[in-house]
Structure formats: structure tokens, C-alpha cells
What does this fold into?
Amino acid sequence: MGVFQLPKSLCQELSTMVARFWWGKSAFNQAMVAKQAWRLLENPSSLVGQILRARYFPNGDFLTAGYGQSPSLIWRSILWGRQVIEQGLIWRIGGGTSMRVFHDKWIPKPYTFSPLINRGLSLEAKVFYLITASGGWNRTFLYHSFCDEDCAAILSIPLPSMGYLKDKRFWFFSKNERFVCCCWRVRKLRNEVLYRKTVEFLEQFKIHNTYTKPARVPRFIIWIKPPSSSFLLNCDGAIGQAGCSRGVGGALRDSAGNFIWGFVDQGPAGLDVLATEEG
It folds into this structure.
């Protein structure tokens, strides 16, 4: 599409196929809308949250808000997405002051998330009634007010060890936020390791596949003196770069290294270098 001009009918057909892929199933559509409802729940002080609260639930909260009078399409869509959140939204206990024992979902027990049996406890009782002053569960009161199954589920809930914390909602089917964060961290570390290994591989590949001309090691020629009462004649020859001329020279020294005699000769090139040196 970025190279050739396509007929409008084909473009419309492609757009229809893409739309059908994303929005052909209402469950996917509802899940995407539920993400907006979750953002509204997690960030009620946002500009959108303040506008919707002033319009539809000025004296309540998002989870208990209804359609109101003449609801907009946006609000009706958000409430439709809220249905998904309500299926797995559960409270994490901080101090228990915001959670109602029988009306809110707070027990890790799928589908009900609340006590099955009430043995005389007020319907509007808060969860903090079940916690002792020392910050632990009141076991005696629990077994007096609920059945054994509910008591076992409640006692499995860890209470904060650092004093009072604010109650918080989370998605039950993700187990807990720490699990999600750990998975994200593991994935992040894995990607970092893979990226690091890839970079190292590319660096090694570049090193081993880059031709570097070997450094020329200088050769040092040391003159060795001849035996006593002897002379040494050193000769050398060379041919010009164009191959048209040659030169030869020599030096005669005694055993003490004193220069005795020397010669230099130039002429047209007729022999190779070795023959020039020897001749």
C-alpha cells in the first residue's frame, strides 16, 4: 500500500477485514472496553474520571454507579466493560476499614469471594471487625461467626506486617500484583541477556570478519665483524621502481669495523635483484 495506488474498493475491503478481525467478536470488544473501565477505577482523579463522577456518581463510587438519566454512549460502554472487571475484582486487605464483610469480594474463593453463612454478624460490618488490636485474625470470633470453610479461606489471607495500610482492589485471576511484576521483571531480564549476547556476538563477528593488515615488524640488520686479521666486504643491489635502472654498492671493513674501501655503480637494469647483488 505504500508503493502502489490501490483501487478504493480494495482498500475498503481490507479495512473491513481488519475491523472484522479486531471487533468481530463481542468478547474481545468488551475486554478492550474493560481496560478503560480499569483505568477509571485505578485513576479516579484523572480528568475523565472527574467528569464522569460529577455526571453519573457524585455521591457514590464507580463500582456502584448506575446508568443515570440519558447516559452517553461512552458511559454505557464503560459500564458494559465493568461487567468483566466485576467477575474477578477482589480486595486486598490493608486495614479492612473500606471493605464490607458480606457485600464486597475479599475472600480468595472463586465465584463467591464472600462468606456463605452469617451467624449473627451485622450485614454492614466491616472487615476490620475481624482483626485483633495486635494485627492478626480474631480466630475465636471467626469460628463463632462463619462456617469452617469460610474460616479456613479467611485465615489463609496474609495481613500486613507493617501496621495499617490502605485497602486496595486487584484482579484475582492474576493471583497477585507481585506475581505479575515478577513475570515482567523476569521477561525484562531475559530480553536484556538476549540483547547483550546479541551485541557481543555482533561485535565478535565484526572483529573476526574485518581484515586488518598485519603490522610490519621492523627487521634490524646487525653488522658482524670478521675474524681478526680479516676483511669483510658487504654488498647490496637494487632495481628502480620502474624496472629500468639498477644500482649496486659495497663497503670493505676490517675486523675492528674500520672502513677500508667502498664502491657504487649505476646502470640500466638487465638482471634481477639477486643477480644484481651477486654480480
Notes: Residues 103 and 114 are 8 Å apart (CA to CA). Residues 177-208 form the longest helix (32 residues).
